[in-house]
Amino acid sequence: MSHLASSSLNNLTFSHGVDASSSAEWPVLIPNGVLSHGTTVHTRRGQPLPLSIAGEETVFVVRMATLLFRLTLPGDLRQGVSLLYPGDVFRSAFVPPGGEARLLALTPGEVLRFRFDAFSELMAAAPAARAYFDLAVARQMARQAIHLAAIGQLDCFQRLVTFLMELALHTGAPASDGRVVFEMPLSRSEIAEYLGVNADTLSRIMSRLRGEGLLIQPDRHTVYVSDLEALAALSPASPALMSLCGGAAPEPADL
Amino acid sequence: MSHLASSSLNNLTFSHGVDASSSAEWPVLIPNGVLSHGTTVHTRRGQPLPLSIAGEETVFVVRMATLLFRLTLPGDLRQGVSLLYPGDVFRSAFVPPGGEARLLALTPGEVLRFRFDAFSELMAAAPAARAYFDLAVARQMARQAIHLAAIGQLDCFQRLVTFLMELALHTGAPASDGRVVFEMPLSRSEIAEYLGVNADTLSRIMSRLRGEGLLIQPDRHTVYVSDLEALAALSPASPALMSLCGGAAPEPADL
DNA sequence: CGATGACTTGAATAGTTTCAAAGCGAGTGG
DNA sequence: CCACTCGCTTTGAAACTATTCAAGTCATCG
Predict the structure, then answer these.
(1) Per-residue b or e along B78-103, where b marks 16 or more CB atoms closer than 10 Å to that residue's CB
(2) Structure confidence at residue B85 as a pLDDT band (50, 70, 90)
(3) Domain B32-146 in CATH: superfamily?
(4) d(CA B246, CA A131)
(5) Which residue on chain A is closest to B126 by alpha carbon?
(6) What number of C-beta contacts closer than 8 Å exist between A and B?
(7) What distances in angstroms separate CA A35 from CA A10, A122, A132, A227, one per listed residue?
(8) Which residues in A lie closer than 8 A to residue B125 (C-beta atoms)?
(9) How far is the CA of B201 from the C1' of C13 (A)?
(10) CB contact under 8 A, A98 and B240
(11) B248 min Cα distance to partner chain A (Å)
C-alpha cells in the first residue's frame, strides 16, 4: 500500500507507451532538505491537523498518509475539497478565510509540519525544495480541476467511478489475477461529501457496482477492483486522472 | 456584513478609505519586478491564450482582464474551472495533462506572459515577486475550494447567486442608490458550464431573479444588483466569498 | 429585411434526494 | 458467551429538482 507500490501498479497496468524520459513526475520525491526540517506529526484516523500554530501560518508535507481537506458552508454543508497523498503539500492559506475548514488524517501515517515563514526561508535557501513545492502545488491544482469537472459534469455513477479510480491509482496495489486492491480510508458519508452526492444515493450506486462484479468488498474498508480498465472506461475523467497519476509529464503539444 | 460587501468595491472605485491593517490582501499588487519583465499580451474577448510557447511551460499574470480556465472532458463535457481577475496568476502546469484545456480571455485587457524558467529565476532574484506569486496561488486555491463547495453542495439557484456575488465582488462598481453594476463577461452557456448546470435551467433561474427584482439587466451584458446584501443572503457561500474578496486577512482564530 | 445564433419558456422525462424502516457490525456489560 | 445498543449502511417508495427536447422569441448583422 506504499506509494512505491502504487507507482509500480501504474507501470504494470497502463503501458500506454509512456516514454521513460518523463518518468520523474510521480511519485514526487520530497527533497532531503525538506525531510530533515519540520516537525513530524504522527496521525491517527480521523485526527484533525490544526491549521495554525500560535496564530502562524503553516505548511504540511504529507510523508506517508492520506489526508482530506474539507470545507463546511453555513447550514452544515460539508464538501470534501481534496485528498492529499504522500508527496502532497498543504498551506494553511489555501483555506478560504471566514469559512469553517478542516484538514483531517484519514489514515495513520506521518506528516511534516512547518511554520510558513520557516518553510519559506528553507525554500529560498534550497532550490530543490522550492521546485518541489511549486511542482506539488501545480499537480494538486490540476487534480482539483479534474475533481471539479467530475462534480460539475458527471452523474452520480460516473463520479463514484472517478473517485474509485483516483484511490486505485494513488493507493492501490496489484493483487492476483491483475486485480487491484486498496484500503477505503473514507466512510460512505465522507465519500458522499467528497463527491457532492447524497449518502443514500451513493450506497445504491456502490451496490450496483458490486452487483455488476466490478467491485468486490470483503469488508467495508477493503476494495478489490476486478478490471481496472473496465472501471476506467466508465468515467470520462479517467484519461485525465491516469495521465496525472501515471507518470506522464504534460506534453506541450496537448495543451 | 456591510463593511465586507462594500470594501472591495471601495478599493476598486473609490480611494482607500478602508483600514490599512489588512489592505495588502486585495487587490493584490503586482510587484514592479514582475511588471517590467514578461511579454504583454493584449486580449480580445474570446481569445484563447496558448498554454505553451515553443514547447515550454508558461506563466500568465493578469494585469487587467477577466480570464476563464476551462477544462473539457471526453464527450464534450466542458467545465469552467476558475475565473481569473487582475492580480491572478496562471501556470500552465495547473492544467491536467492529457485533457483538453483552454485559457480564454473574456474581456479585452492586458496579460503578462512569461516562460516558466524565466519567471522562476525572476522570483529567485526578487523576494517580492516570490511572495506575490505564492500569495496569488494560495488565494486562487481558496477561491477554487469555494467554487467546488458551491457546485457540490448548492442547488442551481444558490449556485447562480454565488456566481453573481463573485462577479459583483471582483468586478462590480457602486452605482446610484447603493446599487452595484458589473459587466457580464460570460454568455449564458459559459455561465452554465462554470456552474455545472444546464443552460436552459440557468436561463429559467435568471428570469426568476429578474422577476424578484434582485437583478436588473438593461441589456444582456450589463447587470445591476439592487441589493447586494439581499442577494448575498441567498447563498451559503457568500460569507466565504466576501471575506476572501473583501480585504480581510485570514484570522488564525477562525481556522 | 431575412437570416443566424443566442436566449427563453413549456411539457414530459429522468435522475437524485428525502424520509422511513430495516439490516448489519463493533463494542459493552450482564 | 450472549444479548443489547449505537452508529453506519442499505433499500424502498414518494416527492422533487433538474434535464431534455422542441417550439418560440429576441437581438445582431449582413
Answers:
(1) bbbbbbbbbbbbbbbbbbbbbbbbbb
(2) very high
(3) Jelly Rolls (2.60.120.10)
(4) 32
(5) A124
(6) 203
(7) 26, 11, 12, 37
(8) none
(9) 15
(10) yes
(11) 8
Contact status, residue A160 vs residue A214, Cβ threshold 8 Å: no
Q: Is the CB of A204 under 7 A from strand C?
A: yes
**CATH number belonging to the domain at B2-23+154-248, selected among 3.40.50.80, 3.30.70.100, 3.40.50.1000, 1.10.10.10:** 1.10.10.10
Task: For residues A220 and A217, give the distance between their C-alpha atoms in angstroms, rounded to a whole number.
Answer: 6
CATH superfamily for A32-145 is Jelly Rolls (2.60.120.10)
Helix (H) or strand (E) holding A43: strand A39-43
CB B168 within 8 A of CB B8: no
pTM score: 0.88
Rounded, the Å distance between the CA of B115 and C1' of C2 is 49
Assess A113–B contact: CB distance below 8 Å, yes or no. no
A5-14, A111-120, A169-178, B211-220: least confidently modelled range? A5-14
- Alpha-carbon distance of B47 to B208, in angstroms, equals 32
* pLDDT for B17 beyond 60: no
Q: Which of chain D's bases lie under 7 Å from a protein CB?
A: 8-13, 17-22, 27-28
Contact between B130 and A131 under an 8 Å Cβ cutoff? The reply is: no
Choose the closest CB to B97 out of A91, A149, A250.
Answer: A250
Query: Taking CB atoms and an 8 Å limit, are A145 and B94 in contact across chains?
Result: yes
Give the list of residues 6+ apart from residue A222 with CB closer than 8 angstroms, or none: A181, A182, A183, A184
pLDDT given at position A118? 95
User: How do residues B94-146 score in pLDDT, each as one tens digit?
Assistant: 999 987 999 999 999 999 999 999 999 999 999 999 999 999 999 999 999 99
What's the one-letter identity of residue A63?
A: R
Model pLDDT, residue B255? 39
- What percent of chain A shows pLDDT beyond 90? 76
